[in-house]
Write a structure and sequence with these properties.
By secondary structure, the protein is mainly α. It has six helices and no strands. The termini are far apart. Bound molecules: fe (iii) ion (2 copies).
């Protein structure tokens, strides 16, 4: 039997929600690896914030999955993109701001697909998550600029700082006092 118009609309929204979920799963793996590496290099404060950002991405992956389930879809469990390992601290931040910027552009396009298919709840979900990706972008961009302009002076201030995120393991947005889900 052919799909109804409503079923087609839902299928299109589920497709973009799952694309976004796969991107979140990729970001989680990428940022977790960077968190361990920064910790290993003893850049504690950078490691702690990377861990917090990975936690934000886990929440995003979950939020997309919940909406997919509500629409009767099946959330993807795989991260199809390759994770980059062993990056120097000078490479990490331009790389990650690039990832966030790409994510913002993609999510803006996905949001339009949700709007065109009459799903305002998913539009609002993308809007809220785009705001958080922008905060991640700003942090990565600022940190990358500090490393670029101040170099060793900046890094020597970070070396040996604590990598602890405390017992609460709040995400980055919540730790900064933002976000509805903080
Ligand atoms: Fe995210
Ligand atoms: Fe992000």
């Amino acid at each position: 039997m052919a799909k109804t118009n409503r079923e087609n609309q839902k299928a299109k929204v589920i497709e973009v929600l799952n694309k976004a979920r796969a991107m979140e799963l990729h970001a989680i793996s990428q940022y977790m690896i960077q968190h361990y590496n920064l910790d290993d290099m003893d850049y504690g404060e950078l490691a702690a914030n990377m861990k917090r950002i990975a936690i934000d991405e886990m929440r995003h992956a979950e939020q997309f999955a919940e909406r997919i389930k509500e629409l009767g879809g099946e959330p993807v469990a795989q991260n199809p993109a390759k994770v980059v390992k062993g990056q120097d601290v000078r490479k990490i931040y331009p790389f990650d701001s690039g990832l966030e910027d790409e994510t913002i552009a993609e999510y803006n396009a996905f949001l339009e697909v949700c709007r065109a298919n009459g799903d305002n709840i998913s539009v609002k979900l993308f809007e809220a998550i785009i705001d958080e990706e922008q905060a991640h972008y700003n942090y990565f961009d600022n940190t990358g600029n500090h490393i670029k302009t101040l170099g060793d002076v900046y890094l020597s201030k970070i070396a040996g700082t604590s990598a602890s995120t405390g017992p609460s393991t709040k995400g980055f947005i919540a730790n900064q006092g933002g976000g509805a889900s903080a």
